[in-house]
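Quick illustration for those who missed Monday's session on complexes.
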Amino acid sequence: MASLTFHGAVRQVTGSCYLLEANGDQVLIECGMTQGGKRDELHNRNRFPFDPAALSAVVISHAHLDHSGLLPKLVAEGFSGSIYLTPASTDLLGLMLKDAAGLQERDTEWENRWRQRAGKPLLEPLYVQADTDAALELCKPTDYQQPTMIARGIEVCFHEAGHILGSAIVEISVHEEGERTRRLVFSGDLGGLDAPLLRDPAFLEQADLVLMESTYGDRDHRNKQETLTELQAILERAWKDGGNVLIPSFAVGRTQDLLYYLGKFYQAGLLKQHTVFLDSPMAIAATRIYDRYHHQFSEEDQALIKGSGKGTLRDWLPILKCTQTPDESMAINKVTSGAIIIAGAGMCNGGRIVHHFKHNLWRKNCHVIFPGFQAKGTVGRRLVDGEKQIRVVHQSLAVNAQLHTLGGFSAHAGQSDLIGWLKHFTSAPEVYLVHGEEEKSQILAAAIKEQLGIQARLPEQGQKITL
Ligand code: ZN
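Prediction with zinc ion bound:
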């Protein structure tokens, strides 16, 4: 009898990990990193609760690290099977894992400096570039809608999830002798309807078991059109004030959404700024990957963007200037007005954005737009909370700039879209809610019960169910 064990993203958002067993084979669905505070991240150093060498295959829904970030560790600890994911996810995964390995190495070096001085035992990095390279070699890019046998009697098929480029809903069919075929559908991270660039999530009808994400299970997002109107008004005001606009942004997903929206304003003759600087090597690389897969954009946006040239984001926003090298980045410091500067880190804890703070934050005519959530303890959060003096790159800066938080850019489906997606199943599947803080998942479960009459469950860590 086939079984599924919940090893991660249980009553929390990150660390996605589920073990499927059938016909004596083991398949891992997701190998995500736990993200958050230092204590949460220590979890990543634990031994896997299964033997990596015994796995036949791994399936990854999309390239975000909370779904894929422990793959190099899995390989370092003995996994040598195949990793199945979509072609665009494979490209993005390369970018993200290499960046993550570099960060691991640098962080450990930093941590070990004080450990050495304090006479404490030194740490090894969670993994290094060589582990990442080994993991990437095991990737088997697999197109959407391409049923593929990945272990004995275990077949996977990816469907569009509309969350980031390449993101997939994972459908797994389990064939066992003497049993009827059982179907497991894992939503991965689901995008909302009408997300920029991407196609809408696919609706599936048949499943025996559904694992659904519940990151925003407790609410709906703000209307996208309102957010865009607000963004445009801020850009207009910034232009009149004569300063620059700074936008701290995540490299993959959020940045490309912004380029799409800015292009929309530009094409309509509404964007007054003379240059949009994309000042992040990782975001530049991610944008190239988006452009390479522009045939996977929604039909509507493909047609729209094609009107301006070859159908890539670069043609769509011709005033985009990608600044790859540190010299090119530093040259932006001379620009004191009329530019939009998009840079990482998304929560302002380092990266090139803090250098732009140094040159702009103290100016009254500068505007800073936060297009996403700023976690506790980050520089971004302190700014959003209204601190008037901030210390970055060894300098104290007066915060005179005008700050704006825009709430409508989430890449996740809100409550109504999640329930709308679930509603399409006609086979009365068992439903488990994963990838959500417990309280939010509970609120979603109550709404599902009320609207669909389905009793959705929250799994326990390590719980094993038969399929
Ligand atoms: Zn994600």
